[in-house]
Amino acid sequence: RLDRIVTGLLCAKGAEAAKNSPTCDVLIVDRSVDVIAPVIHEWTYESMVHDLLDVKNGVYRYKITTNAGEQEKDAVLGDDDSLWTELRHAHIAEVLTTLADKTRAFAHIGPQGTGTRDLTTGQLKRAVEALPRVLEQRAKLSVHASIASEINALLQSCALSEVGRLEQDVVYGDATSKDIAYLFNTLDEKGIRLPMVEKLRLLLCYVASHPQKIDAAEKSRWCKQTGLTASDVD
Q1: Facing residues of 62 across strands?
Q2: pLDDT number for residue 164
Q3: pLDDT score recorded for residue 34
Q4: Exposed end of the chain (fewer CB within 10 Å): N or C?
């Protein structure tokens, strides 16, 4: 369908004219043109936060341990959070590296790192004036370190990196249903229980990219390999 739309645009403006002049055409298409995007895993920080964590209305709830015991706190993930705006569109691997680097950098700020005995009066004054900003940045860093840690734990426990690679192979036609069944069996042997929602997402990726291969035998194979019911597959 998308090919027909592009062909129609070229015919309307003339193929030669389209080749010889820049174009600024914007295609607004129905979701039915790309049914895979809503189910395949997106690996940017913001997408993984909303996909994997229980974040409602942009509020992330987490726990901290203080002298008074364990407490629940809320963090708003929005434009007022400079770290969120910096990292939200980055790949999760880049986010983990960036947060680790920032944590190491903050470890050298303040009395724990540089010490205050050798500071001049002017340097000490500037350090005190900067303290509220430093503490705020440290607090935000702590929040995002908690988020990243939670995401990373889910990636490991559910083998989502392996699932994500297989999703890409399935969508691009480099993997078949046999590869999906092999992954499920391999994870079972390792004692990794893939959540049913992840199995369904893989199934939807396969169905969307291989609609001509879904027959009764294929449905039966899926039910056997995944534990899905016939109604799930239908």
Answers
A1: 73
A2: 93
A3: 78
A4: C
Rounded to an integer, what distance in angstroms lies between the CA atom of residue 226 and that of residue 197?
Answer: 11
- For position 95, what pLDDT does the model report? 93
C-beta separation of 234 from 190 below 8 A: no
Give the whole-angstrom CA distance, residue 197 versus residue 157: 15
Q: Which amino acid is at 142?
A: S
- Listed as own residue / partner, the contacts of 23-32 with beta carbons closer than 8 Å and 24 or more positions apart are 27/2, 29/1, 29/2, 29/5
**pTM for the whole thing?**
0.71
Number of C-beta neighbours around residue 96 at 10 A: 19
Instruction: Quickly tell me which residue has 């303040």 as its tokens.
Output: 110
Instruction: Return the CATH superfamily for domain 45-157.
Output: Sec1/Munc18 (SM) protein, domain 3a (3.90.830.10)
Spatial separation of the C-alpha atoms in residues 54 and 39, rounded to whole Å: 18
Each domain of the chain, given as residue ranges in start order, spans 2-33, 45-157, 160-233
Residue 54 contacts by C-beta under 8 Å, 6 or more apart in sequence? Answer: 61
Contacts of 60 (CB under 8 A, 6+ apart): 49, 53, 74, 75, 76, 77, 143, 147
Tokens of 118: 């050798």
The reported pLDDT for the residue numbered 20 is 62
How does 129-166 read in b/e, with b if 16+ C-beta sit within 10 Å?
Answer: eeeeeeeebeebbbbbbbbbebbeeebeebbbeebbeb
Return the number of other C-beta atoms located less than 10 Å from residue 223's C-beta: 15
